[in-house]
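Researcher: Good morning. I'm working through a list of sequences from a screen, and I'd like to move beyond sequence-only analysis. For each chain I'm collecting a predicted structure so we can compare shapes side by side. This is the next one on the list. No need for commentary yet; just the structure.
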Amino acid sequence: MLTFAQYDYYQPVAPAAGHAALLWVVYLAFIVIYIVGLWKVFEKAGEAGWKSIIPIWNTIVELRIVGYSPWYLLVFLIPLVNIVFAIVVAYKLAKSFGYGAGMTILEFVFGIGILIMGFGDAKYIGPGGEKPQKADA
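Model: Good morning. Structure tokens for this chain:
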């Protein structure tokens, strides 16, 4: 049995650093895939795709797409409430493209729903899934 004095605390940490680097690569790959999907979703909704690259602006545009005011961005600053609100926004985004709760799960939990909406044959219906009212002339 090793005692406190016999244990070598200065062992190299290279294997752990390699795992951390791998996790960062996977994390960045997910971010790039999400941005590409969001780019296509923005284009389908009539927004410029490049807006998906800018961190806070993409959330404001997404809120606009689902029919919320940009002021709702402040809700994301409230701990725990922001998680619930993110699920609501994901649901409203799925409804805006004609999908339901299943797509919300794919979008929020697995992250693949945004790719399905962006690259699939879904059409943008309107904010929150409501068809826009046509003005009578």
